[in-house]
Design goal:
- This protein is mostly beta strands.
- The protein has one domain: Immunoglobulin-like (Sandwich), CATH 2.60.40.
- The protein has one helix and eleven strands; from the N terminus they run αβββββββββββ.
- The strands form two sheets. It has a six-stranded mixed β-sheet with strand order 2-11-9-4-7-6, with no helix packed on it.
- The longest helix is centred in the N-terminal third of the chain and has 24 residues.
- The protein is elongated.
């Protein structure tokens, strides 16, 4: 009976270590959130969306996002870097397709990354509600988010929080 108890205890301990290791390696709970302001707008008005990154226990050296939006209701007017990657990050991809409703954007930190990186805004995107937009809720979503850690290795298992904007006519 003592041997069985020791085997069960050893199995539980091993399982707990494996679960802890997999949680630690799974990106440390990194999250990307889209935060619109204001959450309601009329045709002809602009609104901003902050792309916030909460890296958990990771250092963040680079970020790439792919965002989709309803091109019949809005278009991207501008995008600017936030403070996540320092004062003057290195630009990467900047592709805006207002006809298809797709935005791809990436930046990298210049210099060393000391983990953990504090949660901060990666980018601020300015949208314009088109005059032809119909009233309703319009979703903004990331179809892809990539984060690179302090060694420029992919940070896996990033949670993505979507957002929506209400158009009033």
């Amino acid at each position: 009976m003592k041997l069985l108890s020791k085997l069960v205890l050893a199995a539980i301990t091993l399982w707990a270590l494996l679960v802890t290791a997999s949680c630690t390696c799974a990106g440390g709970g990194a999250t990307a959130s889209l935060i619109p302001s204001p959450e309601e707008a009329k045709p002809g008005e602009q609104f901003e969306v902050q792309v916030k990154i909460e890296p958990g226990n990771q250092g963040v050296s680079a970020v790439e996002i792919h965002l989709v939006f309803d091109a019949k209701a809005m278009q991207v007017m501008d995008i600017s870097p936030g403070e996540l990657l320092g004062e003057r990050p290195l630009p990467g991809i900047l592709e805006i397709d207002n006809e298809a409703g797709i935005l791809s954007y990436s930046l990298a930190r210049i210099g060393e990354t000391t983990p953990p990186t504090s949660a901060a805004t990666f980018a601020t995107i300015t949208f314009l509600i088109l005059e032809s937009a119909k009233a309703g809720d319009y979703e903004l979503s990331c179809t892809g988010v990539g984060l690179a850690n302090e060694n420029f290795e992919d940070i896996p298992s990033i949670k993505v929080k979507r957002a929506s904007v209400k158009v009033r006519t």
